[in-house]
Amino acid sequence: MQYNQTALWIAGFITATVMLPNISVEAQNNSSPDNLPMNIKVDCKNPQTQFQMNFCAAETAKTANRQLNRTYQKAIAKFKGTPQEKQLVDAQLVWIKFRDADCAFSRDRFQGGSMAPMVYSGCIARMSQQRIKELEGYLTEGGL
Fold it and tell me: Which residues lie below 8 Å from residue 79, measured CB to CB, with a gap of 6+?
């Protein structure tokens, strides 16, 4: 009888140990703002926990990305029908791949850490803001 209890305890321990990494990864992946229950409110002016900091950084990144898309659409409209239109489209696609890869590299320096999502979102927001300024420069240049 003692042998069966010990075997069950060991099997349960092994199962829990194997499942824990999967649970924590799932929790990290589901902590994006889009996956929050509707009744959770986060004060992004004064985040107190790492979860709140991650949430607020993700919100900032989403806002920057929306602004980037609006600015990009204005630039595309400006260059519509010119040889620069295709160049801008190609450049933007390559830039997005670079931004995402560079931010993934920044995030992965903290792989498994609770601040990794915040690092990634902060990078996305920062690089998107830089790109917005570049695109706005194209919009204000004379000649077109």
Answer: 85, 88, 138, 144
